Amino acid sequence: MMSTTPEPGTWFEHALEWESDPAGGDRPARCLITRSAPASTAAYPQVSYRRVDDPGGYGPSSIDEDLFPRILRRWLTPEESEQAEREARFRRCGYVTSDLMNV
Fold it and tell me: How far apart are CA 97 and CA 86, in angstroms?
């Protein structure tokens, strides 16, 4: 059985949100967990996350920690997480640092 414990820095596919796929169509939104508040710090512990296509400038989305398993479609693999991180960085900055080495 898949673990549903949210850890900051972990990428997942959202079960209820979609993003545009460059290959055509839509796919489940890829999201990065930015914060998971322990029960002692919030009345309702929250999991905060950002979508890969988030342009920045806005606060992260959040959900009650006990509801998180309902939006978790699956965890991304390390390779998919690396790709999502590069795409998110590119969308925020307009380039990927490693791309500058290849110019």
Answer: 9
